[in-house]
Write a structure and sequence with these properties.
heterodimer; A: about 325 residues; mainly alpha; ABC transporter involved in vitamin B12 uptake, BtuC; about 70% helix; B: about 230 residues; alpha/beta; Rossmann fold; 4-stranded antiparallel beta sheet; about 35% helix; globular
């Protein structure tokens, strides 16, 4: 039973956690992909930047003598989301919009976003240094333990993980409501579906572009902050997260927000279940087996974890390029 | 004065000029049909009116205002609607949502207008929660019309509305065009099925090689032996 709890903690829950992060990031990427028609590589660094804003605001709150049962960095996350959203719109206005209006091909926009990535990497290191930072500046994070009868190992959930699950659930519901019940949300779906017809119909594409960056930027900030709360804030957060997020986006179908969420969880769970040492689950039935179980039955060694989204991406691109939810093939 | 007045229009795609000095005038409440061989510039004409390509010379005036080269987004404000030939619905949105998007530029309540559209196209009412991409070609065309009607346009531009449809649906579409026209909407329609189209037209414009070839009322053109020989299959 203990081994099963270990599986739940380190296989299932770990997969859902990283899956939630990927889902939140992938929604932004897929919206930009679908509406602005390019792969936004700077998304990972916007996540890092957003996390830094959350931390800075947390420090400001602390200096102002603010107290709360919630972690200061979590409270700081919300204004940070607004700031990140505005900066995302700013980047679009300065870097991407002029290229769009000059009729640049999508690959040129991708290169521009790579440039933004490098710029952000430098700026973040310039102001934030290169070391890892703990986001819980006021008090250590809470750890919740759930004891299951029959096992003395508890199911463990940390405070940032609980916040992340709740935040992701709320985001999914809110996003669904926004896309299916509001005028602007439907307009976003329309522009993603057929941008030429959207212009002819009289839909204000400017508003739709803003909404895309606001949602993408805000969710990127949240994903970056929540991930850093769970681990630590490092300036190179983006490198390891960009590939899985793009894999999640493409698996779900480009331009399909629900696909991005499903894709995020799929990639996250595949990752954590691939590096999980399945030998541990076989331990209870060891006496029944006539052969020796090797000490490590992980499908992929932990250091090669990044291989998993890569393989998923290759498989999807070969066998089902439109993704689960049949998105666009760009 | 004409509602729509196109004078000496030279227009095309980038450097390529397709229309070389075309004139067209439609009075309010008329159905105007543009016919001609492939490549004559029929669709180009509609796209030029709707500001979708380069106009090098000439002018377009609508309801007294100069709309030459105006950006497509602004034309809903002038009460001009355009139904393109292809990709003319939001396939992933439901029929109802397509209509709602048609009304995007409106600031007022438009439930009454949606009801009118469903009255004009009763088939759509049953399918209003279905994604438009799942409907048949003829029904999709109706959604495209309905979407255009949501701004209560004074002028509606239709680019080959019966293209690819069965003969039965063709009659239905032409019938609906007449019905729309009876509510006071001026129609400018490009059509490949010249005979049936000219039969319902108040004015007909035959284009060839980017220029006016014959102009007259629908019945005049149908009776004209030259027109009949060239475009109407005798």
């Amino acid at each position: 039973m203990n081994d099963f709890i270990f599986f739940i903690n380190n296989g299932l829950i770990a997969g859902l956690i990283i899956g939630s992060i990927y889902a939140l990031g992938a929604v932004g990427v897929t919206l930009v992909f679908g509406i602005l028609r390019f792969a936004h590589f700077a998304h990972g660094d916007i996540m890092t930047m957003g996390a830094f804003f959350s931390l800075i605001i947390a420090y400001l709150l602390q200096a102002a003598g603010f107290h709360s049962i919630f972690a200061l960095v979590f409270i700081g996350m919300f204004p940070a989301m607004v700031i990140t959203a505005l900066i995302a719109i700013g980047f679009d206005r300065v870097f991407y919009k002029p290229l769009r209006e000059a009729g640049a091909r999508p690959i040129v926009l991708v290169m521009a976003s790579l440039g933004v990535t490098l710029m952000l990497q430098g700026v973040i290191r310039l102001f934030g240094g290169v070391s890892a930072r703990n986001m819980f500046i006021d008090r250590p994070k809470e750890i919740f333990q759930f004891h299951v009868p029959g096992a003395h190992r508890p199911i463990v959930l940390t405070e940032p993980e609980v916040i992340l699950f709740i935040f992701t659930a709320v985001t999914v519901v809110a996003l669904h409501y926004f896309l299916t019940r509001t005028r602007l949300g439907k307009a976003m779906r329309a522009v993603s579906d057929n941008p030429d017809l959207a212009r002819i119909t009289g839909i204000n594409t400017e508003h739709v572009v803003w909404a895309t960056w606001i949602i993408g930027g805000a969710l990127a900030c949240a994903a970056g902050t929540l991930l850093s709360m769970d681990v630590a804030l490092k300036p190179d957060l983006s490198w390891n997260i960009l590939l899985p997020i793009f894999a999640a986006t493409i698996v779900g179908g480009i331009g399909q927000p629900y696909g991005a969420i499903a894709g995020g969880f799929l990639v996250g769970l595949c990752e954590s279940l691939s590096v999980f040492n399945w030998a541990i689950l076989l331990r209870p039935i060891k006496p029944l087996l006539w052969f020796d179980i090797p000490s490590s039955l992980a499908i992929v060694p932990t250091q090669y974890k990044l291989m998993v989204p890569f393989v998923i991406l290759i498989i999807v691109l070969i066998y089902r390029p439109t993704g689960i939810f049949k998105g666009r093939v760009l | 004065m004409s509602l729509l007045s196109v004078t000496n229009l030279h227009a095309g795609y980038g450097q390529m000029t397709i229309l070389k000095g075309v004139d067209m005038a439609l009075d309010a409440g008329e159905i105007g049909v543009i016919v001609g061989p492939n490549g004559a510039g029929k669709s180009t004409m509609l796209k030029a009116i709707f500001g979708m390509l380069t106009i090098s010379e000439g002018s377009i005036s609508f309801d007294g205002a100069d709309v030459t080269g105006i950006r497509p987004e602004k034309l809903a404000g002038h009460k001009i609607a355009f139904v393109p030939q292809e990709a003319n619905v939001f396939a992933s949105l439901t029929v109802q949502e397509n209509l709602e998007m048609g009304a995007y530029s409106r600031r007022d309540a438009y439930d009454g207008i949606i009801d009118n559209v469903y009255e004009l196209f009763p088939d759509l009412k049953n399918k209003r929660r279905q994604p438009a991409g799942e409907l048949s070609g003829g029904q999709r065309q109706m959604v495209a019309f309905g979407r255009a009607l949501m701004i209560e346009p004074k002028l509606i531009l239709l680019d080959e509305p019966t293209a690819g449809l069965s003969p039965l649906f063709m009659s239905v579409i032409f019938d609906r065009v007449i019905a729309i026209n009876r509510t006071g909407v001026t129609v400018a329609m490009v059509e490949q099925n010249a005979k049936q189209a000219l039969a319902i037209a108040h004015k007909g414009f035959v284009l060839a090689n980017g220029q006016n070839s014959y102009t007259g009322t629908g019945s005049e053109l149908l009776a004209n032996p030259d027109v009949a020989r060239s475009f109407l299959g005798g």
